[in-house]
């Protein structure tokens, strides 16, 4: 008879196996690490919740001041009115896209940016359009990027006038931008109806048939040589075959 059978007869119950009698061994170091992890996690959760409350809901980081750069004088107030930044709003809740949209509605603004100046400021960066010509027959001006707008302030005298619309206006403005500065300063009128028929009228009354916007430097060199001959019209639209027409109009007595 085996020992297991003997034990069964003596006690009336089957003997426990060795693995059933084995008690689980607890690791104190592992328990300590788990307690530290839970403590750190709890502290981190509290800190994050506190940070969210401070940034998004408290009055600690709210907008107190709005500044405008890029313009001065009365234009600052116009930008502030258009931006409509709510004083007292939490900095993080400011809708910068909406603010920029308000500024972009000003036709004389070329570009803008909204910058959060933590902890309590907002800076509105504005790039105004620069008028380089006046649109004939209106109060509007034309900027260097070809936009037509009504200037918010009086313009400096001496700007050339532009005549044209659609493709003609684009061509006239591109020609005005690409001609040499010394020639541009003498231009009184730029006109065009297509991409290839731009014409300049100087303040002296001389007419220059410029043609397309291509090869401005070559045309300028040819024109400089051509103007050594007095004429009323200089045609450099085809710079390889320049021509002159008529004699300059004598000033009236």
From TrEMBL:
GO biological process: cell division
GO cellular component: plasma membrane
Segments crossing the lipid bilayer: 36-56
Region (Disordered): 1-26
Record's keyword terms, sorted: Cell cycle, Cell division, Cell membrane, Membrane, Transmembrane, Transmembrane helix
PANTHER family: CELL DIVISION PROTEIN DIVIB, CELL DIVISION PROTEIN FTSQ
UniProt name for this protein: Unannotated protein
């Amino acid at each position: 008879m085996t020992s297991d059978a003997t034990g069964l007869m003596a006690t009336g119950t089957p003997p426990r196996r060795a693995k059933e009698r084995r008690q689980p061994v607890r690791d104190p170091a592992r328990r300590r690490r788990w307690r530290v992890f839970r403590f750190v996690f709890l502290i981190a959760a509290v800190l994050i919740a506190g940070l969210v409350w401070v940034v998004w809901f408290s009055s600690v980081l709210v907008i107190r001041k709005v500044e405008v750069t890029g313009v001065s004088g009365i234009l600052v107030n116009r930008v502030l009115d258009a931006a409509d930044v709510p004083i007292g709003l939490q900095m993080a809740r400011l809708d910068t896209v909406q603010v920029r949209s308000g500024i972009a509605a000003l036709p004389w603004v070329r570009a803008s940016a909204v910058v959060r100046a933590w902890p309590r400021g907002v800076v509105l960066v504005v790039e105004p359009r620069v008028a380089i010509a006046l649109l004939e027959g209106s109060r509007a001006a034309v900027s260097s990027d070809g936009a037509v707008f009504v200037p918010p302030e009086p313009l400096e005298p001496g700007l050339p006038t532009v005549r044209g619309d659609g493709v003609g206006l684009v061509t006239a403005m591109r020609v005005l931008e690409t001609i040499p500065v010394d020639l541009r300063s003498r231009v009184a009128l730029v006109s065009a109806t297509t991409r290839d028929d731009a014409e300049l009228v100087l303040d002296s009354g001389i007419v220059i048939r410029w043609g397309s916007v291509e090869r401005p430097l070559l045309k300028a060199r040819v024109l400089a040589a051509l103007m050594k001959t007095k004429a009323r019209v200089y045609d450099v639209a085809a710079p390889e075959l320049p021509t002159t027409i008529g004699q300059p109009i004598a000033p009236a007595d």
